Amino acid sequence: MKAEHTPEKDPHIRRMDEALNEPVLDHDYDGIEELDNPLPGWWLATFYITIVVGVVYFAYHNILNPADVHAQRYASELQAYEQTQAEKNQAQAVTLTPEQMLEKINDPAVIQAGSALYNERCISCHAAAGAGQIGPNLTDDYWINGDGKPLTIQTLIDKGVTTKGMPAWEAVFSDQQLVEITAYVVSLRGSNPPNAKAPQGDKKEL
Q: What is the pTM of this model?
C-alpha cells in the first residue's frame, strides 16, 4: 500500500519520512510537515453518522414537521408559565374594603415599604417627599384625577392615566406593593415640603 504513495507516483507526496517510512505531504506550514495518515475509521464513521442524523432531524422538524413538535412544546411551556403566573398573582392579590385600606395606610411598616418603592420608581416625576416636578404635587388637597381617596389613588397608580402622562404600574407592582405605595402617598398629605409645586386640578374634601 505504501508503495503506491511515493514521490514518484503521487505529486502530493514530497518525500518519505526516514524514521517512520511514511509519506510526507507537500503541505508546509512554517516548516511543519504533515504525514499522509488516514483518519481513524471510528472517527470517520462518527462524522458521517452525525451528518446523516443532522439532515434527518432538520428535515423531520423543519420540512416534514408531521407533529409540529416545536410549536407544541412552546405552547405547553407557555401555558405552564401563564398558569404559574396566575397562581402567583392570585396568591399576592390584596382586595381591600375602604376600612381595611384605612387600616393599612396607618400602618408605619406599610408606609415605610411604600416610601422605598416611591423613591425607587416615582421620585423622578413627583420629586422627593411628593413635592411635585413633572408630575403634580402629592401633598396638597388638589387632584387632577380622581377624588384623592386611598382606593382611588391605588387604582390610579395601578391603571395609570396615559392621557395625562401617568403610566400604569400594574405590570411592575404587585397588589401588596400598590397598597404600600398608596399608603405612602396618603401619608404625604399636608406635609408641606419645601419648594412644593403649585396646586393643580380640583380641591377635594377628604
A: 0.55
Instruction: Pick the closest to residue 172 from 126, 98, 117, 99 (CA basis).
Output: 117
Quick: pLDDT tens for 89-103: 665 555 677 788 888
CA end-to-end span of the chain, whole Å? 103
Give percent helix, percent strand, percent coil of the chain, each to the nearest 5. 50, 10, 40
Note the helical H segments in 9-149.
41-59, 69-92, 98-105, 108-121, 123-126
How many helices (H) and strands (E) in the chain?
7, 5
Q: What is the grid cell recorded at 56? A: 434527518
| pLDDT tens by residue, 127-166 | 999 999 999 999 999 999 888 888 889 989 988 888 888 9
CB atoms inside a 10 Å sphere around CB 169: 18
